[in-house]
Amino acid sequence: MSVQKVILHKLKMQLKFPFMTSFGTLQNKEFFIIEVVAADGISGFGESVAFPSPWYTEETTATNEHVMKDFLLPLIQNNTINHPNDITDIFKPIKRNNMAKAAVEGAIWDLYAKQHDQTLAEALGGTKRKIDVGVSLGIQPTVEKLLEDIGDHVDRGYKRIKLKIKPGWDLEVLREVRNHFPDTPIMADANSAYTLDDVNHLKKFDELDLMMIEQPLAHDDIIEHAKLQQAIQTPICLDESIQSYDDARHAIDLGSCKIINVKIGRVGGLTEAKRIHDLCFEKNMPIWCGGMLEAGVGRAHNIALTTLTNFTMPGDTAGSSRYWEKDIISPEVVVEDGTITVPGKPGIGYEIDREALEEFSVGRWEYRV
Ligand code: OSB
Ligand code: MG
Q: Which atom of ligand 1 is nearest to the CA of 26?
């Protein structure tokens, strides 16, 4: 693929609103845009999705920086890459650090697609022209505010509403939401806020006809989730617990969930995400594409992945304007009637807005390959 240069752009962007989950509140996002430049002058782009604090999983912006600079980029410099699939083996000596790996691998995938004059979706084997999207709503100061927010997104056609929950902001809130929105597809995401001691409480969620409950138990558990799934009717969807193809395989074998949320960063890249997709297709396990409050580049990668056939449920990748005053891509990601039209241009299909990249830049490092 003749990569000649890698540029790390460190960006700082502020979300339009504080996003509250059971683990904490996020508003400022520092992250990296990885640009790989080939001999032919074509650039591929990836985005690191970790947050400044290790609340969701153990990775952070700083660990992404350390691992990319000190381990992954030297491996890119010292190996020949013929296809993005090669990256998995090249990165194999480095354990975990999946978001750092996915950021670099994503840039290589974009470059590869552009060099082959294909969309990233086509390069991955995706066929959908439009994808269905839902929205993830954080914990709100009041139930009234939440109901307003839900109504707003239902009116704009979002295909399902995901609500962040935690002990104290769960059953009562969900009951009220269900009363106001009897027919809306609704799901809840606990981000590992409960334990098996809460099983009787979680059983009461069965009356709410939720599409699923996401990651109710520990971030690294698949054993107790299997016990919980036996005890409740609501389908369990695993997020944090699935960090690899083998995790997905074990969770399916154990019956730990009925649905899987696939995030490119969490599983270490598009190649692994595609392997999980193929496995779940074979095992009849529905999947959807999760989000990490991404800027435009990460958002574009999510859209491309979602074009694969087994992404049968709406994902979390909403339009750019839900998160940002200004995004770093042109055009921005737009949601119409709850769908995103997959871009037709090569690679990620959106141009990088170099001015915006500059505006949000807090650091830049360049490496010769
Ligand atoms: O658990 O899916 C999650 C945001 C930050 C960290 C974890 C999660 C989320 C979301 C929002 O639910 C996804 C998005 O809108 O990008
Ligand atoms: Mg989640």
A: 5
